[in-house]
Amino acid sequence: MIRFLVLRTAGIIGVLLAVTAATYVIFYVFPADPARMACGKPCTPESLAQAREFLGVDQPLWVQYLEFLKGLVAGRTFGDGGGAIVCAAPCLGYSVQHHQPVTTLIAQTFPVTVSIAAGAAVLWLLTGVAAGTVSALRRGRLPDRAVMTTAMVGVSMPSYLVGLLAILFFGFTLDVVPVGSYVPLTENPVDWAFHLITPWCVLALLNAAIYARLTRSQLLETLGEDFVRTARAKGLRERTVVVRHALRTALVPVVTVFGLDLGALLGGAVITERVFSMYGLGALLIDAVGHTDLPVITGVTILAAAFVVVANLVVDLAYRALDPRV
Amino acid sequence: MAVLDPHHLQATTGAWRQLRGDRWALMGAALVAGFVLLAVLAPLLTALSHTDPYTYDIEALDAAGVPMGMFGGVSGAHWLGVEPQTGRDLFAILVYGARTSLLVGLGATAVSVVAGTVVGVVAGYTGGFADMLLSRFTDLMLAFPSLIFMIALGAIVPSSFPKALFIVLVIGAFGWPSVARVVRGLTLTLRTRDFVLAARAIGAPTSRILRAEIWPNLASSVTVLATMAVPGAITAEAALSFLGIGVTPPTPSWGRTIANAVSWIQVDPWYLLAPGAALFLLTLGFNMLGDGLRDAYDPRVSGSRG
């Protein structure tokens, strides 16, 4: 287990290095000049050179990248003398547009996006697996057909469309849930959940349908296997057979798919926060794209990649816990 | 020759028969055909309705910019009502938006299917180190937060570069991994089949083996994969436009219209109906058709995840 963790952590660091390097090359080789943006209008050659030096973009690309990595681990200082700005580790750069370190900006917006993503993921896994199990056990009957039809419709329904309909119906017509605005978890956990319940349901709905379909087919397959027959022959209760033996095995591929869906989950959260007018990572990024605020753009993309890579480790651990063969 | 294998031919006619009996798949095909017709005939249809997706019609709005009349301003002049604030015709936006959706969706699918097939065949056929490297890369890309990267890439594309082409390329560039994974698996099993081994034994060049032995056996699966990839690409385009970074306005896009509807949802909920229903029905159509094709042609391609 320890060997596995060490190996995986080393692998993660390797992947993250590759991703940051690739991101850096992609976004800084192209002609968009972050210093020109920082310099503002009117931009004299002197102030442009000054801005270049301040941001460190006057140096060769590889030096910039090493500086970036150094900042990530140990923090760095932009400029010197009176105008110097200290950017504490983990420093992802400095946004001239916001006059703030990128890390601070992300720390303000990331919780919003993660709150949406995490809650939705929990909800979709629970309901998806439950619905899939029910429909597998009641194959061909009403619950099964209802789940399969919902899955087909759900797959084709973009989450923002569902979101808008939910806002219209539950938010305005019935007026039972709040529309928009985000309350931090640390401020009031109940309000936090209350404001997020609609986004969670909206984002979870589609994926729950897909997972129901997957769970159903996997469970049907497993229920026909020898070890399930053995378990039944041993005289175990049907409940134990289904949950402890069949479902556990059937969930292994579901977990694998979940690992692959983490990137899409983050994307879904970005769309959902927009529908519900919450200022999260996506809004920060879209803003930055509009202003060619490169430090923010690279910071957000690197963070998103890191989130997926690290979350995948968690998925892998779950995988090992589920599958007795690994 | 694999293509003329009588067994294969029989399988194909069997698949046709099954597809013709699959009501869901036929409904899907009808929906897709309907939207293709709308898109192709867009200029003709708007000529009939005497509208276009660009002209403002302030006459159709009240002082607050809300469409006058029932159901979001439905009238003889505006069959599906008008856009709030501008009064642009929603029917024209719908049919021209179908062009955007289909062009970007099919274009991006073509990019990702070609790239995915090449990567998958190379990985599966060569095996060894190249396979390991390509497979790891595919897995990494598969779990990647692609939407965030697509948004970010919008910052560095020169404004002179055609936006629609850019959208096609980014969606395609992030769509290939799922194709590559399946194609690799299929190639891996094909590589050890007798007819491939026989071709290698008589010294056929690799290019010939790939073209004459491997590809004909992959073709039906790739067709199924392509059909199942289209709805994902269409939704991706709509999502990008929804986030305000899709095709440049005023080119109509359902995603952008849906995004505009967000701020009008309380006063003019009808605004959402036409673009929302169109996007849903087109995606549903492709999904139903893809599922049907998969069941009929290729039960091996599993995991229909739009």
Automatic annotation (TrEMBL), chain A:
Example of a GO cellular component annotation carried by this entry: plasma membrane
Domain ABC transmembrane type-1 residue range list: 110-319
Location in or out of the cell: Cell membrane
Keywords: Cell membrane, Membrane, Transmembrane, Transmembrane helix, Transport
Top-rank lineage group of the source organism: Bacteria
InterPro entries: BPD_transp_1_N, MetI-like, MetI-like_sf
Bilayer-spanning residue ranges: 12-30, 112-134, 146-172, 192-212, 246-271, 294-315
Signal peptide: none
Main location: membrane
A GO BP entry: transmembrane transport
Record membrane topology: Multi-pass membrane protein
Family: Belongs to the binding-protein-dependent transport system permease family.
PANTHER family, sorted: DIPEPTIDE TRANSPORT SYSTEM PERMEASE PROTEIN DPPB-RELATED (PTHR43163)
Protein name per the record: Peptide ABC transporter permease
Automatic annotation (TrEMBL), chain B:
Record key words, sorted: Cell membrane, Membrane, Transmembrane, Transmembrane helix, Transport
InterPro entries xref list: BP-dependent_transpt_permease (IPR050366), MetI-like (IPR000515), MetI-like_sf (IPR035906), OppC_N (IPR025966)
Record GO biological process: transmembrane transport
PROSITE patterns according to UniProt: ABC_TM1 (PS50928)
Subcellular location(s) of the protein: Cell membrane
Membrane topology term: Multi-pass membrane protein
Domain ABC transmembrane type-1 residues, every copy: 98-290
Keyword Endoplasmic reticulum: no
UniProt keyword Heme, yes or no: no
One Gene Ontology cellular component: plasma membrane
CDD domains: TM_PBP2
Transmembrane segments: 24-48, 60-82, 102-125, 137-158, 164-183, 218-245, 270-290
Any Pfam family the entry gives: BPD_transp_1
PANTHER family assigned: D,D-DIPEPTIDE TRANSPORT SYSTEM PERMEASE PROTEIN DDPC-RELATED, OLIGOPEPTIDE TRANSPORT SYSTEM PERMEASE PROTEIN APPC
Family: Belongs to the binding-protein-dependent transport system permease family.
Protein name according to UniProt: Peptide ABC transporter permease
Organism encoding this protein: Nocardioides luteus
